[in-house]
Fold Glycosyl hydrolases family 39 N-terminal catalytic domain-containing protein.
Amino acid sequence: MTSPPTMKLAFLLLSLFHATTARQVNITVDASKVLGSLSPVARFFGADEPNYATYPDGKALLQQLGEVVPDQPTYFRTHNLLTTCDPPDDTTPHRLKWGCTNVYTEDEHGQPIFNFTILDEIFDTYLESGVKPYVQTGFMPKALSNHPDPYSFEFDGASAANNIFTGWTNPPTSWEKWGDLIFQWAKHCVERYGKAEVESWYWEVWNEPNIAYWNGTQEQYFMLYDFAVDGVLRALPSATVGGPEVAGGASGDWLGLFLNHTLDGANSATGKNGAPLDFISFHAKGAPTFINATDSVPAHLQMNMAAGLQNVEDAFSVIQSFPTLNQLPVFVGEDDPDSCAACLSPQVDYRNGLIYPSYTAASFTRQIDLAVKHSINLAGTLTWAFEFDDHPFFDGFRVLATNQIDKPILNFFRMFGKMQRQRIDAHSTGQHDLDSVVSSSVRGDSDVGVFASRSEEQDKMAVMIWNYHDDDLPKPDAQISFNISNAFPGHDVARLTHFRIDESHSNAFSAWLAMGSPQNPPQEQLADLKAEGMLKMLHPPAQIELRNGSVEIEFDLPIHAISLLVIEQ
């Protein structure tokens, strides 16, 4: 029997072998075979904390997000847009999992007082950055909550989350006052920003009402939805409204019962049957775990993409069963590898480096495939991550940037923003099939996948290739043999730009580690980190020869790396 020290040595040798021995993968793309239109789904973001948008680092990041897709707007969804500052002069409205606007209070006679100052500052900042609101109508103002105390809370990122669900989760003391609050808010937005602008927004009601974010019954949530939607539409009949942002995909029969309500349930606000519904939204989350060391395997993080994809497939299956609703736009309103952006633990120690973007590439493309499988109009996959001002560099929270240094994950969105509007046929000998990833995630060999697109004018192609595995362990590089056929008829040459996310490209985190992990880097290092945080090319753009519309390109792709090849006339 092999002794434990020998086993560990054997594992180390095996790890070195895997890290240096490439795996041959053949990838083919047929530029003439269009599979359908490709919506720019990866341009939606969100966070618990609305006030960070108006702080220096938040403004800087919003500018970046506004440029993710050059010809399409970015949208931002946030909690706490109606939450009351507690106390009213709270000087820290931007702490973890909290935010407040003081939009609604009441005088001594119980009459509403509306103050949109903070809300206006938040939305103004979005729009100045080229970002549009994906408006969440929540949470319950203290003066409207039927059980307001305790109301505010402190959260340190390590405690159990069940201490945060306080008075803001409760139903209103008056449904009519709740509806009027939403009416006054929507009316104010139309007056401030104009009818055409507000018509381009999405308005949804609350967040995850099937769990502790809503301390009422399901029937009371339907009432909340009815009055909120009625308020929006009284102010702007052409507004786009929807929900229910349910947690856990379909969450049993929750999503189906909500859809039934919008079709023919008793509407508490109008007295009629049914409620307006222009889009459907739900949430999907992965489930990473930390694997303790054994004699043969060291301690390591293991992701679980299947958990989130099963949420997606469950919800898609329910939506598909409603013939009059199943062509509505559908949003995965929070779509992430784990369930809590502001929590820290070994189970979520993936957020600074390469696993996060490669996971997202492999997951988002599978969700697009699931939408095709179930004939779903997938309009957006919303990443619940933003930034926290005045926090340490690379502290491990699920954010897109840290102290105005972009993390590798943000470069995935920059890559996806370069994808073109027609999906084309692509195959990889290293790609796991859809059903196996949905059922079992990515274990065994790594998932060397491909997702290809072309412009409608047929003068540009963008092809994304990733090398992903659930385990944060050494794995073989992929030796890619990449062949395109039927490209640019009548042309003999094209221009190739090869973008890369890996240890030495588009990766400020690895650069920061190489600097010794400074928490107070001098200006020269800060400038270097900002530069390393941008999307980088693997090599300078090059001219490539086409032979009868075909070209073959070879390159290595390390584990958890992503390549984007843009080929154009």
Q: What stands out?
A: Residues 1-19 have pLDDT under 50 and may be disordered.
